[in-house]
Structures are given as C-alpha cells and as structure tokens.
Predict the 3D structure of the following.
Amino acid sequence: MRYRQVRFFNYIEDKNPMRFRSLALLFFLLSAISMDGYGQVFGGNPPSTKWRQINTDTVRVIFPKGDERRGERVAATVHQLQRKYANTIGNSLHKVNIVLQDETLISNGYVGLGPFRSEFYTTPPVNAFSLGAVNWTDLLSVHEFRHVQQYSNFRKGLSKFASIILGQEGQAIANAAAIPNWFFEGDAVFNETMLTRQGRGSLPLFFSNYQSLFNAGIHYSYMKMRNGSYRNFVPDHYALGYLLVAYGRKQYGDDIWKKVTDDAARFSPLFYPFQGAVKKYTGEKFPDFVRHAMDYYQQQWASAKTADPQWLTTGNNNRVVNYRYPYAADDGSLIVLKNTYSRIPAFYKLLGNGKEERIGVRDITSDDYFGYNNNRIVYTAIRPDLRWGNRDRNVIRILDIASGQVKQVAGKGRYFTPDISHNGKLVTAVKQDRDTTRLLVINVEDGSRMGEQKQSNEVYTYPKFSADDASVYWIVRNDKGQMGIRKWETGSGKTETIIPLSNRIIGFLQVKGDTLLFSTTHDGRDELWACIDRAGQYNTYRMAAYSTGIYQGTLDQGGQLVGSTFTAGGYRLGRFSPLWEKTTPRDELHTLYVGDAYQNKDHGILDSLGNGYYPVRRYSKGFNLLNFHSWRPYYDYPEYSFTIYGENVLNTFQSQLSYTYNRNEGSHKVGYDGIYGGFLLQPVFGVNQTWQRSALWNQDTTVYWNELGAYGGLRLPLNLTAGKQYRALVLQGTFNTDQVKWTGVGQKLFRNVGVNYVEGVLAYYGQVQQAAQHIYPHWGHSFLLQYRNSVNEFTAHQFLATGSLYLPGLLRNHSLVVNLAYQERDTARMYFFKNNFPFSRGYQGIDFPRMWKLGVNYHFPLLYPDWGVGQVVYFLRVRANAFFDYTVGKSLRTGLERPFRTAGGELYFDTKWWNQEPVTFGVRYSRLLDREFYGVTNQGVWEFILPVRLFK
C-alpha cells in the first residue's frame, strides 16, 4: 500500500515563473481524474473540515473532528509496533505524521518521502478475499507503519548522503535504486500476517496469482516478474515480495532482511547492492535465491493442484480475459462482467452456443461487483465531489437489459454491493458511513427507504434478496475479522444468524430457491459452498473446489455449478458438478506455506490492545505550512538552477523557492511560487527578481537591466466525472506584472518600463475508460483556451486555443488523435507574450499574428518485447505514430499566408528503468514539405524525444 507521490504543482514550472504554465494544467487534469492508482490529492478537503491531532514522541495522528476513536486506536497501535516489533528492520525511528481520510470510497494508504508523511483512506474494503476482514484501520496501521520503520532505517551510507544533498526526495531516489519495491511491500505484508489474524499471507487469493502461473507451466524471468507486461498476466510486486521475504525469513531467520537492507541502503556493494547483500548473508547468488524460493512454493502447489472443470470460456495465456460475477438467467444464458487487456469493462450475455452479446459498457465505479435478477442489472457508479478530491460518493443504477434503459435509484451516498429484487421493485445495498454500517432496502420507484439494519462495530457486504423477496441475506464481519451470514425478514424486522461468526472469509452470495451459494475459505483454498434454508433449519455443504479458487458461483438450469476461477489467462468460467458434502463452518485462516517463518505467535496482539489514553487537541491548518523537504539542482543549457520544494502535511500548500544562473547573460534570478488548495478558489502567486540581465545593443555596447516579475490569481479545479467518462475542468485567472529597470549605460538609452497584464485560462479534459493496451482512450477530448491582455499603456494581447480529439483506430489497440490549434496576437510590437502555439513538428516555431494548425496522428503498437538488460532497463512495448501536421501563418501587414506542412513518424519505447521507474522515450523523423521561414530548410529532421513520460 505504498504509493509514489505525484506532486502536481512541482510539474507546473516555467523558466519564467511569473507565467504559470497554462498547458501544464492539462497534466493536472489527467492526474486528478485517474482511477488507476490513488495517491494523495492536493487540496482535497473543504475548509469546513475541523482537524484534531494526537501528538506523541512517535507519531502525530491527524484526523477530522468526530473521528477521535479511530485516531486513538492508530496511536496505540503504532506505539505497540515500535516498542515490540521494530528490531527485525532496525530501531531507528523518525516521527511521522499520519492523516486519516474518512470521506473517500477508496480503501488504501501510503507512506511517502517528499514530504515524509502517511495517509490512511479508512473506508474498509468490500472484497475481503483480497485484503482480509480484520479492522481496516488496524491493518493499515500495521502495514503502513512498517514502511515508516523501513524509511527510518534506510537513511544510512550513500542513502543518507543523497538525503543531505537532495533532501527527502534524495533518500527516496537512493532507496528505490538500492532496495527493490517488492521488498518494501513484501516485508509489510509479512508484518500484517504476523500481527493480525488475517494478513495476506493467510489469504488463498493472494497466492493464486503465482500458483496459476505454475499450473499453466509458466516461469517468468526475474525482470519480467519485476516489471510486468502489456501482454501477459504478471502478478504485482506485493505478491512477489511476500513470497521472497517469507521464504528468506523461513530459511535464514528473522534478522536476514535487517542485515541485507542495512548493507543495501549503504550501497555496499556499490553496484547491485541488494543482490550483493543477499549473496553475502545467504551464501546464494541472488538468481539462485529467487529460483529456490519459487521452487519451494511450487512443490507445495503441485500437491494442491486439482482437476480442471469443464471450461465455458476459452483460455489463452497470451491474452488476458476476465469473466466475473456470473449469474444464471432464465433463458439459460449467463450474465457476466467482462474485460480484457484490450477492452474496457462491459456487461455481456453468454449464450449456450458459445456466442457472446455485449449488453453495455459499465459506468466508472470504485467496485466491479454487480447484482442481477429478472433481466435487470444493478450496480454502483462513482460520483466524486465536484471540488474536493477526498470526498467520493456513489449512486445506484439499474440497467434494464431488454430496453437498454438505465435508471438511477438513490442519490449520492457511500453505497456498496447492491442487489435487486426478483420483481424489480426493491433494491438492497450497504451504506458505509464513518462509524456505522447500514443495510438498506430502497424503493425503486421513488428512492424511499423501506427498511434499515445498522451497526457501529460491524461491516456488511453482499446483501441478496431471498427467492420470495421477503427477506435479505447478508455477510457480516466484526473488528476481529470473523465473518458470518445473517438473514433479515424485512416485513417483521426479525433477524437471525445463518452461519455463525468465525475466522474465515465469506463473500459473493447468490440465491437459487432455498439454496444460498457463497465463496468461502476452506483448507487453504477459496471454495464454493451452499446453505439450505428450510423453515429455520440451515445446513451447509461444500459444493466445489479448484486449486486457485472459485469466486461467485451460480446454479444453472441443469443443476450444475458455474463459477469464476483464477487462471494465468484471467478469470475463466468453469462448470462443476456439485459435491453436496455436508460440513460445519469453523475457523479456517492460518499462515499458508511458510508457517515456521512465524516464530512469534502474535496474530492476536491487537485484540486486547484498546485505544489507549492520548490527549486530543486541535490541529491548526497553518501548522508548518512551508515544510521545505527536498531540493534539486538542475542544468538546462545555458541555465543552472537550484530549487527547494515545500509542502505541508495536509497537502493544502505547495511552494518552490528557486535560484537560477544564466551562463550566457551572467544574470542571477531568485523566485518564489506558491499555491494554496484549502479554499474553494485556490490562490496562486509568485514573485521573482533577476539581476544583471544583458543584451548586445551594438558592436561596442552591451546593455544591462534588472527585472522584477510577479503574478497572483485564483484557480478553480472541478471534477466532472460521471457515467462512463472521466471529466475535469480548470478555470484560472491571474494578474501579472513585469518591471524592467535599466542599469549602467542602459539608463541613458532607454526608459524603465512596466508591463501589467491579465491572463485567463480554461482547460477541459474528458475521456472514457481505457484498457491496459490502449495507447490512448477510444473516445476523448481536451481543449485549452488562454487569453492574455495588457492593462496599462502598452498594447498587447494574445489568444490561444488548442484541442485534441481521441478516436479508435482500425484495430482494437490503435488510436487516431486529431490536434487543432489557433492563435492570434496584436501587431503593436510593444510587448510579446510567450508563444505556446504547437507549431508543425520539425520547423522552427514562428510567432505570426495569426496561426492555424491541424495535426493528425495514428498511433499503433509494434510489439511487446517483455525484455530487459542487466536489471537496468526493461522494454514493455514498442509503438509507432504516423503523423501529418499542417500549420498556416498569416501576416496581417501583407495578408500573405505561409504553409508549414510536415509528414513523418515517431517511434516510442515504453520502458521501466531499474525495475521500477516507468519512462517513455522516442525518436522522431519529420519530412518538411515546405521551406523554413528563416534559415536553410533541411527537409529531413531527426529528433530524440526524451522523455515524454516520467512519473514519480
């Protein structure tokens, strides 16, 4: 759960900081609406949020007013972890700030450097098979605080030196280069497995990814396991990390990774420090260590392998396809959610003859799960807050398969796992608030609540109507992670326990007559079980098992089971003959495969911990507002620069303090830029002073001047995401001033001048969901409008409009992108604004008073090499772009129009460096079809594009 931090403001830089680079706003939009990963959100909480804190020598826990109980629990857990469980990684500790966010739909957390802080997104996960069912805040505390301990103990040797010369970002870079990301997460997962009853090391689904590869006879290279693939299914670094970390502790003791990381963080040895340290302390070369670890698990998976079912969907290990949540329809078909690496999620009907009919694309959601009954699909669709990024809501929607019509049932709320009654008149869903879980029955016609069950110390999931719609079954779990099934007669209000609470995972209920089907853990696997409900008598049965799990089963018309199974080619549908083996539910979860690695039996240490007694005080939003954490030298000929970066813990204020030396001019510039995100309208501001700027006036005379620049204004970012499209809009207005004061001989030749101007920006972006192999979305659009106008005696104005349209290409993973641009400016020549017009590629950009541009791009993949060199660079994809640019520049004085046409191609390489950092770079060839405006035309122009994407 450790995420790289995205610093929106840090990427909105300009060599002239008085002009806040407007085109970079589009990158902000892309980052703000992405659902692929969830890092911190800038300015995500409204000013009405009142913050409280628990401040100790170990941790500062910051939380919204009213969340004191959770804050105290986090503080108590962290203190216990540091007192008793730090020695396996090191006893150094740097005090950390932990911010609790309780208004998101996301279940996640992170610890990051630059600045050093952590955030917990405290909504518990719906699917307990993936992350367990124990108290979510406890699990976050155990996992994320392990990252705090890691960073605290990895600041040594060259890593410490990097932190001295670059700040916290320097340590982050050094640690990432020295210690693989799989270790960070694998060590944290080991910790959660050791200290809770349901860490991922006890969950069968967590191992099914590598187990499915073994079942398919697939053995990837270490570099492919580290870097992934656009073509094949490759488990993430959490799974790889746990397998290697747990095996290492089993074979070499609890202190093995403390010794390895101590050397690696110091870069001892200098090259491949982690691999070298593994060899030093295990006696094995690193490739042998990895091979022996995987052999150890594969031996156990071989004995656990089961016979294949009758497959209903085809499998191809080179083409990942997922079929999930099958429901048996009355006409004998199956209703499923399907997605692939080349197709976005959509509902499908699978016919008995093997054909598939697409019902419709699924809306954007925080949870893939959906309910089905009588030709109606019900699901939740995300509706983020218009302005505040840490406040998410869902709506409940019903899709009528026959008519294609979609009806919204409930307004914005924190709804999860809905189901629809057989008669289509009622919907049941879970509503998760800060401290209370509610099970609701909602009238479809008017959205009114027909009934409610609620509890403050339990979590509910996957409610289902009974066959007669008179009752609702649902899954319940308590803070210890014990799970069971209950029944609620909605008319009388009577509730009863169907399956008692026990330490196991239960999910994905389905009702077929008097039979209740569900997935549950048993004997190290996730299996299909059933419960027969007959007049208050309940019997449970094992129904079907598969080595890598079966998730959500349904009974077809022939009485056979159909379930979604985990394979190396994605989730496949299989048909199973039901076992009907009568059994009794009991505690099932235990550490899998490496039980003897856990010498300390501390799985229940948090059960009796309590919340502790910590004073709660107000937390000031202005506390440590600047919080300078990192500094970065940079060279871009002819300029040398040094920038200091600041960001407060609540992520409402970001700032940069910079110094720049221009070698050509001999000038010196200092500047400050800031943005505050805690208000509805975000103030942006900056000031810079340059001394000793110079220019050659004539052959014998050089003139010098000083320049003062400043800007201030407001920005309004809006998230308009809804339905099937991500959308975002940014409005910004600034007042800018540029004051020139001549020195030396220049005072006699020129008068001091000051130019004041206003700038307005409107940036919009929208796109549909995007599959893994899509280079660009199959439908998307963006545009930027920028207007600048002087407000004093100087006449100057400029208007720029740019836009792009994203369309599907001829084949599924091809993209057609059309670019349009228009710019106009005055001809008074009193002041020239910076020219941001996207000129035809290959030409030197010319600032005509009027300019138009059309660009056509056709992007397509060439190959997916999945190949790397020396643990340094790994090539995921090679892709090309054939383009044609047509720009027209017009002179208002002569009326002449000058064309600039280019035809060419680009070759891009999507790579990862050091097995971790994604970088895209490329090469471009432009064939100029017209002459340059100035100078000699060189018809063939080659350019390196380095890099076009580099995310931190």
Remarks:
- Residues 1-38 have pLDDT under 50 and may be disordered.
- The longest strand covers residues 701-719.
